[in-house]
Each structure stands twice: as structure tokens, then as C-alpha cells.
Fold each of these.
Amino acid sequence: MKLQELKVRTQELWNYSHKSHGAIAIPSDFKPELRHFGDLRRKTTWAKAYCHFYARQIHDCCLDAFTVPLSLSLPETDWRYPYHEAIFDEFMKLPGGLALLREGLEQLFIDPDYCTPEEREEGYRVLGLVQGQASRGVGRLSDEFIRRLAGATAGT
């Protein structure tokens, strides 16, 4: 993705984030707020900001916990896929992010009537992110919880 397109998508998410909180998005506040993520001339800064705002959108728009792992599960064909680990890490930094993810995974894997087999397959992609989270130093689900999910998924 080109830098200009990433800038546009980041600003769209920033605007949405403000609107979803009932705030007015003031365009002149956009760049000063993004400077928190780094040098605005660098693509990595815009990627960090995008991942942050996307993770916040998932968190803030959660109506049911099972939608969290589905939203974090990006297929390789999705343009955001190169950022999927960073999005996951940003989500895990949010207050209550770990608890929402845990509850969503429980709904996907422990209750077989809660979701479709396709949704459960998407959950497996998120389990891959969970398994790699320790090496990235983000919030961690307990090994016991992961074993319990593994036992539940073995029967599906």
C-alpha cells in the first residue's frame, strides 16, 4: 500500500473514532495527535496510527465478544494483513482487551452452537496470534485457557 492511501485510511479511522465517541473530529487536531506515533514523514508512523485506531474501533464497536476474534482475524488477501500482528498487539493494550478476546474465543470454541464453522475457522487464525503473543511481549492468555480451547477445538 502506498503511503498516501494509508494516510487517507488512517484519517478515515481517526474521524470515525471521534464520531463513535460523540466527539467532533477537528481536522487541525489530526496531525498533532498522530505525531504521538512518530515522524509523519515515515510510513511506519502512519501504520502504527492506523493499527491503533483500527484496534480501538474493534474494541469500541464490540456488541458481542465473539465479534472480537472475527474482527482480528484478517485473511492473507486483506490489505491490512501485513499489519495484523500490530493490530492484535494494539488491541491487547486497550483496557479490557484481553478479557474481551478471552470471552470471544470461549464463545467461538466452547459453545458449538454459538457460531458457524466458517467463523470458528476464522478463530483459528486468531489462536495463531495468541500463540505468538509472548514473543511480542503483549498481554497473555493463560496456558491453561489455551489448553482448554485446544481441547474444545479438538472435538469440532
Amino acid sequence: MMKSDPAWAGYYRETEPSRRRQLLYQLVEQAPDDSANPLRIRLFELRHTDPQNPDHEIDRILWQCVSFIQVCASARFFRNRARKDVEASLSAIGYDEMSGYSDPGERAMYWEIRNGARRYFKTCSDSGYHRALFGLVSSSDYDRFRQMKKDVREMTVVLSERLRYFDRLRIWNQAVIDEYGLADPQGAAELRKEIPFV
């Protein structure tokens, strides 16, 4: 797990985009600069701003969690197409921009992805997640928890394996699995054993 600057802990815990925006600009002004503040602003804007309608808040990392599960399913037969989809998704959230900021950039990207995963896992705790019988029957807590672990495995381990992208998705995998580890430490440890670089 990557360490976060304590000054930024509240920002990365907060999942509501409008509140995060306020915290971001306060912290850029007040917190000690580790050289990654321009990247944090860029990551926030890429993640939450809809270019078609700037007043409409979106969450590209939340969408990426859902999308990567679907891409994983298609990657078994259409690896090249799946790679293009993953690369487009990574580009949309500024994944490669972290390299210009060294370690502080990797940490900023890691915590931004982890925040998106946190938001995704909040949706997984809703009774509407993984409904049975064509959405007519709510799933049990056990079924939702089991499905969440399956989803995490697919969007990290299986996707990386099918695309041969363990190194490329290193920060993504580490952030998602670490956030999942808050709910299921044993399950996260099992997933880490399946993935190199985490």
C-alpha cells in the first residue's frame, strides 16, 4: 500500500465530487507542495468533468471499474480490441501523465484510482447490486460480497492476465486491490498472490 500525505487523507476519503473539488483547491493552497498538485488538479478534471456539459459531474474511474469487467470478458477472444479499450480508458483518466511527476505522481494516481474504487464499492453495498431473477429479487449480503470479490478479480488479475498487462496496470491493480482489502483483507491477500508487482 502506498502512503498518503496526511494532509490529503480527507480528500482521498471523500467520494462526493463537488465536495472533493472544494477540498482539492483548499489543499492546493494550504498543504505542502510535493510537486504533484498540477497532476491532482488534472486528474480531478479528467475524472469528473464532462466535456460535452461541464456542469454535469461524471466519474470516469467509477465507469472504468464497470467497463473493465466487460472488457475482461471480451479479452478472452478479442485481445487486441480489449487492449485498445483499456488504453482509451487509461488515457481518459490521465494514467500516463503520472510518469512526468515521479513518485509523487504515482502516489497521486494510486490514491485517485483508490478513491474511484471506494466509490464503486459503495455502490456494491446497495441492495440493487447483483440482483437475481432479472432484477426482481435483491441479493443477500453474502451474494453481494462474493460478487464484489469476483468483480475485483476480473478488473485486476484476470484482465491483466488476458492482456498480458501486469506491468501496465500495476498502479490500477494495486489501488483497486488495496481498497478492496479494507472490506476483505484475506481476499485481497489472495488476489495479491495472483498478481506480480503488487
Amino acid sequence: MMSACALRKPLVVAPGPPAFDVTVESLKKKRAFEGVPALRGEVRVRIKRDGRKVGGFKGALAYRPPDTMRLRMLTPFGTTAADLVRVVGRTEVFVPGKERLYVGWTPPLKEPVGAEYSAYIDNGWPVLDVTSKGELASRYRFDPATGKNISIEAFSGGEGQRALEVRFSVYDGNVPGIIVFDFGGLEIEIEMEFPEVVEGLEDRLFHPFEKEDREILPLEALFSGK
């Protein structure tokens, strides 16, 4: 698991007070993808490790908010370079060229059963916290001027350790055009090109990969570049 200190530094003080009411109900309605059942489309993917770009691909995304996705990254020849499936925290990445499958878990973005909410302002930035059984599960931050959801932080462990951050920008309605998954040492930036909002996506798109005759490695090995 990535350490909290490996993730980016906290936001600086906002330039002015929020231009909207900071309440639980108002912030819940402003979350990224709120009211969007599913979407799909072509994407551009950029991968950074320790702040350096290590790869770039075109690909295809199928996404069922808040935490179920399939991301297929393609080579310049149209073959699959890597295939990622994430379902409520469980993440698998298959690399066909090496017959290698990375399997692991990161904190889910889906809200836990019995979630409790609190809304407040942190250095000028509107914040919505989600807690479960007295522990912080996730934290949403919003732009004080536009009200757009700029990030989600997911936490794990009893000490509230931040293990995943997802950042959003370039919105069209409630759909951000750029999504960055920040695992600490590894960043995956997804730029959507003409995303199509759909009513649903087939469950088979998100099935786990076959394990037979493949080298199985922990997801952390991919994060560290092994």
C-alpha cells in the first residue's frame, strides 16, 4: 500500500469564500458523475512514475460510477498493451505481451453501508467527508468558485491513511474530461474523447481475468515498476 506522504501535498489556501452553500446535500449533488449511470468512449492515457512520464496510449474506457471500470490501453498497432479492470477497489491489470497479471486491492470509492457525512470548509476549500463506523472512508474536495468536484481521497486503516487520490478537471456538466488516479508512486491520467453517457454496461466487461497459465504478481509490483 502506498504511504500517505507519497501522495501530493494538500491544496493551498483558496483565493476566496465559496460561491454556494456548503452543506451535505449541496455537496453530494456536486460530486463528479453524480446522476450519470454509466459511460464509455475513447481515451488517451498517460502514465507517470515518480513524476516522470513512462508511457502513453490510446484506448477505450467503460465506466460505471463510482468505482467499476474497464480500461483497455492499445499499442500503435491496435493490439492490447494492457487491460485494467477495477471493481469496488479490487484491481487487476493484465499485460498480454508478458502473460502477466497484477492483482490487488486499493480502498474503494463506493460509499460504505451506513455512511455518515459532514460538510465544512478547509482553508477556503469546501469538503465533504464520508465516515463509516467512526473511521474516515473518503474525502471530496470542491472548487470554491465553480462548485466542481476536484478530487476524491480514499483512506484505509484505523489511522485514516490516505492510499488513493482521484483528481478531476475539464468538466462537461457532471462529467470530467480528465481523471487522474494517483496511487502515490504511480499516476494514471485518463483524458476522455467524446464520452457517451449510457443507461448501463454489460457485467461481462468487468469480469476478473483468467488466471490459468499466467504469471500472477501483486499490484504493488506494478506500482513500483517491477
